[in-house]
Amino acid sequence: MENDSVPDIGLQQIDAILAYLPIFEQEDYKFGQWVEKRGQVPYFSESQDVIEFHLALYREKFIFEFDWMKWGEELERYKSKPDMLEDADLRIVRQILTAHSRADRFVEGHFGGELKSGYIIAVLRRLQAIRDDMISDA
After folding, report:
1. pTM of the model
2. In degrees rounded to 5, what are phi and psi of residue 125?
3. In Å, how far are 64, 90, 122, 123, 136 from 76, measured between CA atoms?
4. Which of 8, 15, 50, 98 could form a Cys-Cys staple with 46, CB 3.0–4.6 A?
């Protein structure tokens, strides 16, 4: 069941998330690495910054309850058509971050892969633009 009661967030929470953008934009930043040990299933070991970013998404209430699996087709449209991201509002940005964060629980290394591909960085840049609009509208 979808929860239409989305916790509000303000500039302080947005800023806490945007603090990671310059870190992730660094050239050759390592988001983590695959670890393969004999006798174990390979796993993705996220960098400390990515771990902290993931925690911050929850702490700052960016992650919220909704049927993200049912929203998968829409999520793919946002990823495959980058122009759509330019019109995404704060709720859509949060849905995208929620979906990718939750997908990481089912697909090892998913979140790190989305960061490395530049997609989550593009979402954070959209969040920056939304923040800038909030300031100019105030």
Report:
1. 0.89
2. -65, -35
3. 19, 18, 14, 13, 31
4. 50
Q: Where does residue 136 rank: exposed (0-12), middle (13-18), buried (19+ CB within 10 A)?
A: exposed
Question: What SS3 class is residue 16?
Answer: helix
5-8's contacts with Cβ under 8 Å and 24+ in sequence apart are 6/64, 6/66, 6/91, 6/94, 7/61, 7/64
Helices marked H in 1-138 — which ranges?
11-18, 21-24, 48-59, 72-80, 82-85, 90-103, 110-117, 119-137
* C-alpha to C-alpha distance for 111 and 58, rounded to whole angstroms: 14
Tell me: the pLDDT tens digits for 54-65?
Answer: 999 999 999 988
